[in-house]
């Protein structure tokens, strides 16, 4: 089964030398083999990206970097600690099962 992973980045304002304008923060999810999902460019706060159909696994990481309008990094790449994406439990359904037995002899 696959899961949805939501990554939220908190940003701070810094002063940079004049140059190409910033285009936003690129947020990415990287699987345990180091293969990145398609990055999402978020242009304003809140900086939240949602990745769907993520297979279960251990050792995923998230990355974020501010990019300019040419796709060049304006900041260092920030990387999360590794995290796991667990399988979903199987779907549950209500079932009547015996809870007690009462016997009356007459």
Give your account of this protein's structure.
This protein has no helices and seven strands. With 106 residues, the protein is mainly beta. Strands 2, 3, 5, 6 and 7 form a five-stranded antiparallel beta sheet that branches. It has a two-stranded antiparallel ribbon with strand order 1-4. The protein is elongated. It starts with a strand and ends in a 21-residue tail after the last strand.
Shape: elongated
**Count of individual helical segments:** 0
Radius of gyration: 23 Å
Average pLDDT across residues? 93
Q: In angstroms, what separates the terminal alpha carbons?
A: 55 Å
Largest sheet: 5 strands, antiparallel
Strand content: 35-45%
How many strand units?
Answer: 7
What percent of the residues sit in helical stretches (DSSP H or I)? under 10%
Low-confidence stretches: none
Structural class: mainly beta
The ordered string of helix (H) and strand (E) elements is: EEEEEEE
List its traits:
106 residues, mainly beta, five-stranded antiparallel beta sheet, 43% strand, 7 strands
List the helices and strands and how they pair.
Blueprint: E1 2-9, E2 22-30, E3 40-42, E4 47-55, E5 57-68, E6 78-79, E7 83-85
Antiparallel strand pairs: 1-4, 2-3, 2-5, 5-6, 5-7
Provide a short characterization of the protein structure.
By secondary structure, the chain is mainly β.
């Amino acid at each position: 089964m696959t899961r949805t992973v939501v990554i939220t980045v908190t940003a701070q304002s810094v002063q940079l030398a004049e140059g190409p304008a910033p285009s936003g923060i690129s947020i990415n999810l990287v699987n345990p083999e180091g293969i990145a999902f398609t990055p999402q460019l978020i242009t304003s706060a809140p900086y939240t990206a949602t990745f769907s159909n993520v297979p279960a696994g251990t050792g995923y990481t998230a990355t974020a970097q501010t990019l300019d309008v040419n796709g060049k990094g304006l900041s260092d790449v920030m990387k999360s600690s590794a995290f796991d994406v667990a399988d979903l439990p199987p779907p549950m359904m209500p079932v009547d099962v015996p809870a007690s037995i009462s016997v009356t002899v007459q």
